Amino acid sequence: MMDVDSTLINEEVIDLLAAYAGMGQSVATITESAMRGEINFEDALRQRLALLKDQPVSILKDVLTQISFTPGALELIQVLKNQGWRIGLVSGGFLEILTPLSHGLNLDFIHAHQLSIKSERLTGEIIGSIVDKEEKARALRRFAAQHQIDMSDTVAIGDGANDIEMIKIAGLGISFCGKPILEKAAKVQITERNLMKVLDFL
């Protein structure tokens, strides 16, 4: 199970959305604070989303063009799929970005927020529950249960405070270029920005 923003991809999607909305610095500051665990993830998400209210839905397509996969990401997925691994994504980001982004990757599980959209504009809210650190852990358990995989055989990879709980309960928890708060919780720390390094620990 992999986090997405700053893990599977190089960017923080909500920061890209904010940049298009002219709110880049304000949102980036909140994001960084949340990633370090200084402020509650739900509060941070709602603050950032509120700044995007009334933005046209077209900015989602614009942002997709700005996203790049982390070095080694696509290669890691291909190698693992060829070996019969199940691969899932769990994100505090948005399905409207993840779904087209992951097209063709043959993934087994995706869980993220759904943006609320009315009259082709973002409402500044989401539909459904918040994907916080507890929900990420629950998602890992659901993912494992769906595929009859023992929790001791699961791997979780992330970079921020929001990934701590799933990192703790996974059989192998990996901090990928992670914040100090996550590095303390993870069994393994990868500091080189190359996801193929994950293979060294499986």
Describe the structure concisely for a colleague:
The protein has ten helices and six strands, in the order ααααααβαββαβαβαβ.
Describe this protein with a few key phrases:
single chain; 202 residues; alpha/beta; Rossmann fold; three-stranded mixed sheet; three-stranded parallel sheet; 10 helices; 6 strands; 42% helix
Describe the protein.
The chain has 202 residues and is of the alpha/beta class. It has a single domain, classed as Rossmann fold, CATH 3.40.50.1000. It has helices at residues 4-8, 13-20, 24-35, 41-50, 59-64, 73-82, 95-101, 133-146, 164-169, 180-185, and strands at 88-94, 109-118, 121-127, 155-158, 172-176, 188-190. Strand 5, helix 10 (180-185) and strand 6 form a beta-alpha-beta unit.
Secondary structure elements and pairings:
Blueprint (H helix, E strand, L loop, with lengths): L3 H5 L4 H8 L3 H12 L5 H10 L8 H6 L8 H10 L5 E7 H7 L7 E10 L2 E7 L5 H14 L8 E4 L5 H6 L2 E5 L3 H6 L2 E3 L12
Parallel strand pairs: 1-2, 4-5, 5-6
Antiparallel strand pairs: 2-3
Helix pairs in contact: 2-3, 3-4
The H-and-E topology, N to C, reads as HHHHHHEHEEHEHEHE
Give me the number of helical elements: 10
Strand line-up of the largest beta sheet: 1-2-3
Beta content:
15-25%
Q: How many strands, what sense, and barrel or not for the largest sheet? A: 3 strands, mixed
CATH architecture: 3-Layer(aba) Sandwich
CA-CA gap between termini: 13 Å
As a percent range, the share of helical residues equals 40-55%
Structural class: alpha/beta
| Multimeric state | single chain
Domain count: the total is: 1
Overall mean pLDDT:
95
CATH topology, by name, is: Rossmann fold
| CATH homologous superfamily assignment | HAD superfamily/HAD-like
